[in-house]
Amino acid sequence: MKKKPHPAGVRNKHTTTVKDAMSAMLKSYNINTKFDETNLVTAWEKIMGKAVANRTSKIYVKDSVLIITMSSAPLKHEMNNSKVKVLALFEKEFGRQVVKDVLFI
Prior knowledge:
The chain is an alpha+beta fold. Helices cover 50% and strands 16% of the residues. Strand 1 (56-62) and strand 2 (65-70) form a beta hairpin. The radius of gyration is 20 Å and the shape is elongated. The termini are far apart. 7% of the residues are buried.
């Protein structure tokens, strides 16, 4: 008796999605935090917008704190006053907390 192929859209119980496999791999190598931090730096312009990104000269993560060097003093002051909102935008984008704090210098 021939085995019928699975119809499209139905997965075998032993298969996994690429997303699940990537998550498992990152977790097993204990690099998921670093991966998220790198994605945050890469997505800075998308999250904050072009105007803010154009006034950002340096951005990096150290000890779960996102450190951003701004070229505009008024914008830096405004961003310091909006830290909670900025962290909420990051959490909304990634679905979880990626960094503990953000520092604008």
